[in-house]
Amino acid sequence: MRTGGRILVDQLALQGAGAAYLVPGESFLAVLDALFDTNAVRTIVCRHEGGAAMMAEAAGRLTGRPGIAFVTRAPGATNAASGVYVAAQGQTPMILFVGLPPRARAHLTAFQDFDLAGLYGGMAKHVEIASAAACLPETVSRAYAIALNGRPGPVVIGLPEDVLSETADVRDTPYIEAARSEPSQAAMDEIAALLAAAEQPIVIVGGPNWSAAAQEAVQAFASAFDLSVAAAFRAQDYLDNRHPSYCGHIGINMDERLATAIRAADLILVIGAPLDEIGTAGWTVIASPVPAQRIIHVHPGGTNPRDGVRVAQQIVSSSEGFALALASLKPPGVKRWRTFRRDLRAAFERSQRPLPTPGTVQFAKVVRMVSEQMPELAIIASGAGNYSQFVHRYTSYKTYPSSLAPASGSMGYGLPAAIAAKIEYPERTVIAFAGDGCFMMTAQELATAVQYDLPIVLIIADNGMYGTIRMHQEKTYPGRVSGTSLVNPDFAHMARSFGAWGVTVTETGEFEAAFANALAFEGPAVIVLKLDPNAITPGTTLEAFRKIGSARKG
Ligand SMILES: Cc1ncc(C[n+]2csc(CCOP(=O)(O)OP(=O)(O)O)c2C)c(N)n1
């Protein structure tokens, strides 16, 4: 006989969950008690459920297995939504367990009572409340199967307190593998024929189920066919950016040359990437509902009808299954698109050269320096804000996985994601970038990084404002600054008060030594960059946006 809590934790260990990211609640004491006895599932105590859920999402993204978070009843469950949303948008396998009042009180207004399905129904892939301890192995394995298969995503499981404390005699269920899926020979033959007839084909990679093997297979295919490959928004590590086929990323701050090339392409092979608003730069490079280009879309769940693009051909396959099948295609003798590929690659390489910005700290140069100095297997995390445009433009991602960034554009993601990366891959160098606004959304998790002695480096781009919104404000309401200025603490001092190492950089030349010291420090290290607020994007100043706004207003 085991308690429900133990049955649940045993099942998680059997499924290979390395860590449970949690904020405790009296509703799941039996789970905490079972975690006390196991080394298989590491307990990571967090400071906010949003941070815990983001850590679980990042763990899911990195490992390809559902990341696990535990939170309590309504106050914990509502806080966790920010991380569950990142998983929903990112198609990341994740399971959020929520402690609930005992079953007998399910229909009464219990303390911290709420409607779990009502809260998460529109966000999670599946919501369910465990009915009995004896059912937990089946419930957990179902959660794994749903999170992993088809379009991966977050699953939310409610755990009534008495389900966890009652005992049952029940067998564990076996390890759940994601269903294997590969393209048919007929589909591959059709692709071969379409490629043979194409003038300017392009490949776009992104979405779920990527792997180091998929990266290698697509690179070999791109080399053999001399094709251009673009990455979807925040999927820049899907290809080694040094590969001659890699030509940049789609979405925010997309290079204009790449946008023009995608519009001009006659055939687009999309492997896994979403064809939604951000995946198509607001449907400007691929039109909705009927695109000008012929599109072949590969996805384990088929093309999402809600993305708004009707493609010529859908292939239901995992990205890895499809990528490996590409080896069967014979490249043509003449590659008519060679110059197209070379031009795009040259434009991408030009875009990586730092453009000067106002101020004494050149953020572009700092990001290039980090990119050049980080080891091949380093992981770079970031959240959302204009600072991330610099990170995405000037970092050269090499191996997969080396990037953690929310496709949802959720602020606060970088620090918790970096914590999860260091927990999951202790041997890798982990660096997080955050804006001053972004950092403060999950700043309390710095205590988590200190508690677990995690040597991560956090680089804060401090410009004293919610810069992205200020940029839009200047474009639309020039000179009328409202709700976007920030008065910040001394972040380096704050980091030191947490027990981390902290330093402030006010000149580009100071960064190199600060970075070396941060990397050498045995715990979390924080470098604060004092940025000129006018340095708002890699190519345009805030003043320029104000002028655009003023001209528009006449
Ligand atoms: C959780 C969340 N809240 C609000 C927003 C809207 N938003 C997008 S960027 C941004 C400002 C980011 O500021 P900061 O992190 O300081 O970076 P900066 O743009 O100044 O570089 C805001 C408020 C968001 N994307 N996510």
Tally of DSSP β-strands:
20
Radius of gyration: 24 Å
The structural class is alpha/beta
Shape verdict: globular
Instruction: Report the average pLDDT across residues.
Output: 96
Number of distinct helices: 21
Topology:
Layout: E1 2-3, H1 4-14, E2 19-22, H2 29-36, E3 42-45, H3 49-63, E4 67-72, H4 73-90, E5 94-100, H5 116-120, E6 126-129, H6 136-148, E7 154-160, H7 161-165, E8 167-168, H8 185-197, E9 201-205, H9 212-225, E10 228-231, E11 246-249, H10 256-264, E12 267-271, E13 294-299, E14 313-316, H11 319-325, H12 338-351, H13 363-373, E15 379-381, H14 387-394, E16 403-404, H15 414-424, E17 430-435, H16 436-441, H17 446-451, E18 457-462, H18 467-476, H19 491-498, E19 501-505, H20 511-520, E20 525-530, H21 542-553
Parallel strand pairs: 2-3, 2-4, 4-5, 5-7, 6-7, 9-10, 9-12, 10-11, 12-13, 13-14, 15-16, 15-17, 17-18, 18-20, 19-20
Antiparallel strand pairs: 1-8
Helix pairs in contact: 1-2, 1-6, 3-4, 3-15, 9-11, 13-14, 18-21
This protein binds thiamine diphosphate (TPP).
Thiamine diphosphate (TPP) binds at residues 384-387, 409-412, 435-438, 441, 461, 463, 465-469.
